[in-house]
């Protein structure tokens, strides 16, 4: 399922979401400028390498990506869900919330596979936290979704709780399956970072959302 947009207009300009997207895009452009050997060194320095863990990489790793699809997919999800979460949390709280979700996601992936020498990179753990917050804040929302069906393409509105819940279960089951085949030399998708980020977002949003907006529901607005 490929999300195209949600149905909720943002009441404020999502400056932080746009800024995060811009920083990620600039970092990815810098990665593209590096030669393959230099890129490998760069990713090992600033990505999370569990076997040689450094706390600073919990921050730096969430602004790096492993390819065009990785970067575009992550930032597209952030654009769809981030503006509304930022609207409800407020700009400053949203930034702290985003970074906390990303850091906890990276830490979780490290704990699951502590002997790995493969760098873990990407914003998906932090974005999973944003998705978890959206799940709580906008249970009545819907997501316009593109669904490829063999040679046909269907575009339908799916309840956000179903879309996000299905995504979370896919990460959970995939993460459980990855444990059996994980070695210190394997790369792949950091499923447990996604799971941890979503759970942190699911719980943390109750702490970070602005009290004066807790009872503001989008469908009551003009």
What does it look like?
With 222 residues, the chain is mainly α. The chain has a single domain (2-220), classed as Up-down Bundle (Rhomboid-like fold). Helices cover 59% and strands 9% of the residues. The chain contains eight helices and three strands; from the N terminus they run E-H-H-H-H-H-H-E-E-H-H. Strands 1-2-3 form a three-stranded antiparallel beta sheet. Strand 2 and strand 3 form a beta hairpin. The longest helix is centred in the middle third of the chain and has 22 residues, at 68-89. It is globular. Mean pLDDT is 89; it is low at 218-222.
What are the defining features of this structure?
Rhomboid-like fold; mainly alpha; three-stranded antiparallel sheet; disordered C terminus; 9% strand; globular; 222 residues
Q: Can you summarize this structure?
A:
This protein has a three-stranded antiparallel β-sheet with strand order 1-2-3.
Number of domains: 1
CATH homologous superfamily label: Rhomboid-like
CATH architecture: Up-down Bundle
Radius of gyration, in Å, reads: 17 Å
Q: Which ranges are low-confidence, i.e. pLDDT below 50, for 5 or more consecutive residues? A: 218-222
Spatial separation of the terminal alpha carbons: 31 Å
For the sheet with most strands, the description reads: 3 strands, antiparallel
User: How much of the sequence is in beta strands?
Assistant: 5-15%
**CATH fold-level label:** Rhomboid-like fold
Q: Give the ordered list of helices and strands.
A: EHHHHHHEEHH
Q: What is the mean pLDDT?
A: 89
The helicity comes to 55-70%
What is the overall number of helices? Answer: 8
**Tally of DSSP β-strands:** 3
Strand order of the largest sheet: 1-2-3
Oligomer: single chain
- Which overall shape is indicated by the principal axes computed on the Cα atoms? globular
């Amino acid at each position: 399922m490929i999300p195209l947009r949600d149905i909720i207009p943002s009441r404020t300009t999502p400056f932080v979401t746009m800024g995060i997207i811009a920083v990620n895009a600039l970092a990815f452009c810098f990665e593209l400028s590096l030669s393959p050997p230099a890129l490998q060194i760069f990713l090992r320095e600033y990505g999370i390498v569990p076997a040689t863990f450094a706390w600073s990489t919990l921050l730096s790793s969430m602004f790096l990506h492993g390819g065009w699809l990785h970067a575009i997919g992550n930032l597209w999800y952030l654009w769809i869900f981030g503006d509304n979460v930022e609207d409800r949390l407020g700009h400053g709280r949203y930034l702290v919330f985003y970074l906390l979700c990303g850091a906890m996601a990276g830490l979780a992936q490290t704990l699951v596979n502590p002997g790995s020498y493969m760098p873990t990179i990407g914003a998906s753990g932090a974005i999973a936290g944003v998705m978890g917050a959206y799940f709580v804040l906008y249970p009545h929302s819907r997501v316009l979704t593109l669904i490829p069906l063999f040679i046909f393409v269907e575009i339908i509105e799916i309840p956000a709780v179903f879309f996000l819940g299905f995504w979370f279960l896919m990460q959970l089951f995939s993460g459980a399956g990855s444990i059996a085949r994980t070695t210190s030399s394997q790369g792949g998708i950091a499923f447990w970072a996604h799971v941890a980020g979503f759970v942190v977002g699911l719980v943390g949003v109750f702490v970070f959302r602005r009290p004066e907006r807790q009872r503001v529901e989008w469908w009551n607005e003009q």
